[in-house]
Write a structure and sequence with these properties.
By secondary structure, this protein is of the alpha+beta class. The chain is built from 4 helices and 5 strands. The chain has a single domain, classed as 60s Ribosomal Protein L30, Chain: A (2-Layer Sandwich). α1 packs antiparallel against α2 and α3 packs across α4.
């Protein structure tokens, strides 16, 4: 179940209790109104996610990035890759991050983004968790310091060399380069800033 759907159901349950109050029941009109409002909010959030996904697909067509919706979140995969045993952000990855930060900071200032860090299969699990975190932090710092995103918007997590998240299963060295990466996940898009939304064909 999508995250915003779960939130809607939890909100509905709380609203049902609140509407019931001392009477011990909910009026049908109040219940129907609450359902309609929750459905409208759910549809609005999905529309924002669809709009943001479309913007990213158009903007990032020139980059080697895979964009997908997953459980109400937008995942931008294969964003940045790193040298073996290194967490230095490469210059060739910065233009894509610049575009990402520009879209988010100008059009989706309420968005919450998680930078996921990964490593290849060499080394211990504990070491690779630290290395993945350093890579995620390097991208987060770039998005905040250079891209202009708010530090409150961007968080990090490391999956190290978790096999179920590796692109090249069990590979390291040159063959494992696809595993040494970060992924950007938009956990919450928020509402698009209308003042910043340019008409089609402009900007």
């Amino acid at each position: 179940m999508r995250s915003y759907q779960r939130l809607a159901y939890v909100s509905l349950a709380a609203l049902t209790v609140g509407l019931g109050g001392c009477q011990g029941y909910v009026k049908k009109a109040d219940f129907d109104s609450a359902i309609s409002e929750l459905r409208a909010n759910q549809q609005k959030q999905q529309q924002e996610i669809d709009n943001l996904t479309q913007q990213m697909q158009q903007r990032f067509a020139q980059y080697d990035a895979k964009i997908a919706q997953l459980n109400g979140r937008i995942q931008v995969d294969s964003v940045s890759h790193f040298a073996f045993n290194d967490a230095t952000l490469r210059d060739q990855d910065k233009p894509m991050l610049d575009d990402f930060a520009k879209i988010m900071s100008k059009n989706y200032p309420q968005a919450v983004v998680t930078v996921e860090g990964f490593a290849d299969n060499a080394g211990s699990s504990a070491y690779n968790v630290r290395l993945g975190r350093e890579r995620a932090n390097a991208v987060r710092d770039y998005l905040v310091k250079t891209g202009g995103m708010s530090a409150d918007q961007v968080r990090t997590v490391s999956y190290g060399k978790a096999l179920n998240r590796q692109v090249a299963k069990g590979k390291s060295g040159d063959e494992g380069e696809p595993n040494r990466r970060v992924t950007l996940v938009v956990d919450f898009a928020g509402t698009q800033a209308q003042a910043q939304a340019a008409p089609q064909g402009q900007g």
